[in-house]
Design goal:
The complex is a heterodimer of chains A (156) and B (738).
Chain A: E1 3-9, E2 12-18, H1 25-32, E3 51-54, E4 57-60, E5 73-75, H2 77-80, H3 88-95, H4 105-118, H5 124-130, H6 141-155
Parallel strand pairs in A: 1-5
Antiparallel strand pairs in A: 1-2, 3-4, 3-5
Helix pairs in contact in A: 3-6, 4-6
Chain B: H1 3-13, E1 18-19, H2 45-48, E2 49-51, E3 57-61, H3 70-82, E4 89-93, H4 110-137, E5 145-147, E6 150-152, E7 160-161, H5 162-165, H6 199-203, E8 214-215, E9 219-224, E10 233-237, E11 247-253, E12 256-261, H7 264-273, E13 275-278, H8 290-296, E14 299-308, H9 311-316, E15 321-329, E16 341-347, E17 350-355, H10 360-371, E18 378-382, H11 394-408, E19 412-415, H12 418-424, E20 431-439, E21 446-456, H13 467-472, E22 496-504, H14 519-537, H15 541-547, H16 552-564, E23 580-590, E24 597-607, E25 613-623, H17 630-649, E26 678-683, H18 697-714, E27 720-721, H19 725-734
Parallel strand pairs in B: 1-8, 3-4, 9-19, 15-27, 17-18, 21-22, 25-26
Antiparallel strand pairs in B: 2-3, 5-6, 6-7, 9-12, 10-13, 11-12, 14-22, 15-20, 16-17, 16-19, 20-21, 23-24, 24-25
Helix pairs in contact in B: 3-4, 10-11, 14-18, 17-18
The chains are: A alpha+beta (156), B alpha/beta (738).
């Protein structure tokens, strides 16, 4: 028994038909709607690789059922900015070369974007705290911190 | 559309997600599974390079970019040697049909070996083209110059472009190991901090990782793991799974059990709905007695990896004072942020596997062996995945997918879940090292040094058992733990040294290499013990090392580290008072005793109440010879420091008698942002020297630098990794207070 769930994705209407309203948003986005920003990391809400914005808040799409986003606004990394019109955070991550394998970077940028929306000029400690539950295994942290600071300066 | 070009195109642009099999045959890119006309020979220039009619250069690299920036560095090397602009070079990586077998992407050898083969191939091609132009036009070769892929005569007349000279034809040249290399003083690309080619796509969600790759008609699979590592499957039922929409069925081969679904979520739900019973297997050692188990394991052979003078006699010298210590280093998991993933398609007796494997050529051998196929009928194609830092689960996911593709005839995507990656990827083995030294009667110098490492033996082949082959009872290799006796020897001028590997018959978990395998554990023991000896002799640890070095590059490196870190000579510290104790520690390595030099100073704080160690800052001096890309190098050094700080302070595999129990990030925590140290780096560039590896050597010095800093702060010596709050607190309580 299939049901249709409609929401706004990256500024445009989107809908997905599913037989299971409990399907995690991550799979709806990746497998149903062709998104590649949010990534599968743990499926447990522990690592942050799947982070998207839901009504401007950074959330873990691997533990949110797709039914919960009906009628709401979802933004993914590809909606935050594009190669020709990148978000300041995307520009700053390029400028600081703040990527190694890059698998976690979606989460880093989406989490930081939510921080910068709420806090205009965060201190380093605020950035570290905001990103505390986003895991990176390559050890790109020192560059990510520099990139978020750079983006904050650009947006100030 | 040509396969490799279409792959490149959607890697770069984020175009079509789906690769179909409707591929037109061309020379450079065979149809899937077909044999190809392109050579992959390592002694042929055409194995490594192609130049097309537009003058575009394609580099074929057997070594792959694991998130380390290798693609960019190889592009720089080839563009420099051929004198073409960077944007005219494309690198194809790890495709068994297209790229030469340059060995596993491991051991910090991708630039040192792989990149230098490509440099030599490019130099051979360039010199041959210069010779060809000189003889065809009757001009002196020396009078010719090359700019932007155009060979120009000294007369200033219009020149001849690579596009005209080669234009897509094979070069038919043997690799000339003596072909003249460009003089580093003329470099304009190598040595520059070129921005990484992959980053724009990665930060905008346009990059295609292995995990994003799809094939028409592809189905999704999940593997159901045994209750215990070697438990047997007694019964199973998918009665409940059959009620899940999109469930396609199960495949069982002995202890290998997998479910397939039309969608990923259907496969996940089905895997949770299958009922299984397993035999009770409890063959793992008791974790609390792990080190007794390691010490008591059967020894297959004993090997001296470094022998200088006569250490046994020196130990017995009258009046000599003996100091000894034992160090242990826990079992670690690779901890890739993206669990392993692969896609396989079996069609008309040919198998194609897309994998993030660091070893596609070896994977092809292993898969053909497992499935009873000819290697020529198997093609493995690399797509970048999450960082693996060694041999993680990528190859096992590929084997899962290959087995299922062959069984079902459908293209199959296998995505490991978090508990698969944490629970079932091969592990860095537990390592125990005993060290002792004899100090002369006056307490002035070290007369003898002996060490022995208790480490799992190395089978003949450098392969790690494929999990699917083990579970399904198919032909398979043993598990190779990596070259883990490297760096057990010491780089110091002690007159009598004996460093010994005790190769053990068994280790609890399927072993494999994790970043700086063995070198990290061995350097932890060596450099901690050097610090203990310096304390024993009452000598500043930097001064102690300088006294025992006769290697000018090593000496220069330590002096620069002293400047970078504003090192001040120190004596053994009395226990400080106060809630937060501060200390610094130093460590040094000459990697594998012959290449990259690294020295590091760590500044730590120890919370006397909780025992928590926080590394505030790392200073690293680094000499890997010629630097290809200084920013890429810094990125690697920073990553080594942060990742190894995590391994040193926090990481330890948890297990019961049957299986791994640390199967998520809560039970296997890694370092988080609030505890990440700052990193200051001094790069020593030597453009006229060989480029050595940099992916691992910094990692080797991190644990000892931290241990030595903790000792500096507290007067207490931690000889066990990880240095958790519990261990530090216990050590503080056990130590006599001053």
């Amino acid at each position: 028994m299939s049901m249709r769930i409609s929401f706004q994705l990256n500024g445009k209407p989107a809908s997905i038909s599913t037989d299971d309203p409990q399907t995690p948003l991550l799979y709806a986005l990746r497998d149903g709607l062709g998104m590649r920003g949010p990534r599968f990391g743990c499926g447990l809400g522990q690592c942050g690789a799947c982070t998207v914005h839901l009504d401007d808040a950074a959330v873990r799409s691997c533990v949110i059922p797709v039914s919960a986003v009906a009628g709401r606004k979802v933004v993914t990394l590809e909606g935050l900015g594009t190669p020709t019109n990148p978000h300041p955070l995307q520009q700053a991550f390029m400028a600081e070369q703040a990527v190694q394998c890059g698998y976690c970077i979606n989460g880093m940028i989406m989490q930081a974007a939510a921080l910068l929306k709420a806090t205009r000029n965060p201190s380093e400690e605020q950035i570290r705290t905001a990103l505390a539950e986003n895991l990176c295994r390559c050890g790109t942290h020192v560059r990510i911190l520099r990139a978020v600071k750079r983006a904050a300066d650009m947006m100030a | 559309m040509v396969l490799n070009e279409s792959r490149r195109r959607f890697l770069k642009t984020g175009g079509a997600l789906v690769v179909t099999f409707a591929l037109s045959p061309t020379k450079a890119a065979p149809t899937v599974g077909a044999t190809t006309a392109k050579t992959v020979a390592t002694d042929e220039i055409d194995g490594f390079l192609a130049i097309d009619a537009r003058g575009r250069v394609t580099v074929y690299s057997g070594k792959v970019d694991l998130g380390t920036g290798l693609e960019t560095a190889l592009t720089q090397i080839a563009a420099e040697e051929l004198s073409v602009p960077l944007d005219r070079v494309t690198v194809i990586q790890g495709d068994t049909a297209l790229t030469p077998d340059q060995g596993i992407t491991w051991g910090s050898l991708s630039i040192q070996n792989g990149g230098m083969q490509i440099r030599q191939a490019a130099a051979t091609a360039r010199e041959a083209l210069l010779t060809q132009v000189a003889s065809a036009h009757g001009v002196a070769k020396e009078s010719l110059t090359i700019k932007d892929g155009v060979i120009t005569p000294g007369s200033g007349d219009k020149g001849w472009s690579y596009a005209e000279l080669v234009g897509g034809r094979d070069l038919h040249l043997k690799l000339d190991a003596k072909a003249r290399l460009k003089d580093p003083k003329d470099y304009t690309i190598v040595g520059q901090p070129v921005a990484r080619l992959d980053i724009p796509a990665k930060v905008t969600g346009r990059f295609t990782y292995m995990h994003d790759f799809k094939v028409t008609g592809m189905v999704h699979a999940r593997v159901i793991r045994p209750r215990g590592l070697k438990a047997g499957l007694l019964t199973w039922s998918d009665a409940k799974a059959r009620k899940i929409p999109g469930y396609l069925g199960a495949v069982r081969k002995e202890n290998f059990l997998a479910v397939l679904g039309r969608s990923e979520w259907a496969a996940i739900k089905a895997s949770r709905a299958v009922d299984t019973t397993w035999s009770d297997w409890q063959g793992l050692p008791e974790k609390a007695k792990l080190w007794e188990y390691v010490r008591g394991a059967e020894v297959v052979s004993v090997e001296d990896v470094q022998k200088v003078g006569n250490s046994a006699a020196a130990m017995q010298t009258a009046g000599a004072r003996t100091v000894s210590a034992s160090y242990d280093f826990a079992i670690h998991t690779h901890g890739s942020i993206g669990p392993s993933c692969a896609v396989a398609h079996y069609q008309n007796g040919k198998l194609t596997v897309w994998s993030a494997s660091q070893q596609t050529h070896l994977l092809r051998t292993q898969l053909s062996n497992m499935l009873g196929m000819q290697p020529a009928d198997v093609r493995c194609i690399y797509l970048e995945g999450a960082g693996c830092y060694g041999r993680n689960g990528h190859e096992d996911a590929a084997a899962d997918a290959a087995l299922l593709a062959k069984e079902t005839g459908r293209p199959v995507r296998v995505q490991w879940m978090r508990e698969d990656e944490h629970g079932w990827d091969p592990k860095g083995p537990p390592t125990l090292i005993d060290v002792r030294a004899a100090v002369d009667a006056a307490g002035n110098e070290v007369r003898a040094w002996e060490s022995q490492a208790f480490i799992p033996h190395k089978p003949k082949e450098s392969a790690v058992t494929l999990l699917a082959a083990e579970l399904a009872g198919l032909p398979r290799d043993e598990a190779f733990p990596g070259n883990i006796s490297q760096s057990l020897g010491i780089p110091y001028t002690v007159p009598n040294i004996r460093a010994t590997a005790r190769w053990l018959a068994e280790t609890p978990f399927r072993p494999s290499w994790i970043r700086a395998p063995g070198r990290m554990q061995n350097t932890f023991a060596n450099e901690s013990f050097v610090d203990e000896l310096a304390v024993t002799l009452g000598v500043d640890p930097l001064e102690f090392r300088l006294r025992h070095l006769d290697d000018q590059r090593g000496i220069e490196l330590l002096r620069r580290l002293a400047t970078l870190s504003a090192w001040t000579p120190r004596r053994p510290m009395a226990r400080q008072a106060g809630a937060v104790l501060k200390g610094r520690g130093l460590a040094y390595v000459k990697y594998e005793l012959y290449r990259t030099y690294v020295g590091a100073v760590a500044d730590v704080e120890v919370d006397g109440q909780s025992g928590k160690v926080t590394v505030k800052k790392f200073y690293v001096a680094h000499d890997c010879g010629q630097i290809i890309n200084p920013d890429g190098l810094r990125n690697q050094i920073e990553g080594n420091v942060v990742q190894t700080t995590s391994r040193t302070l926090l990481e330890e595999l948890q297990f019961d008698r049957s299986r791994v129990t640390s199967v998520d990030w809560a039970s296997y925590p890694i370092l988080k942002f609030p505890d990440v140290p700052d990193v200051a780096i001094d790069l020593i560039d030597r453009p006229n020297e060989k480029p050595w590896g940099a992916g691992e050597p910094t990692a080797a010095v991190v644990p000892a630098a931290i241990a030595n800093a903790i000792a500096g702060a507290t007067g207490v010596r931690l000889r066990s990794v990880p240095m958790t709050s519990e261990k530090v607190l216990a050590a503080l309580h056990a130590a006599p207070s001053s």
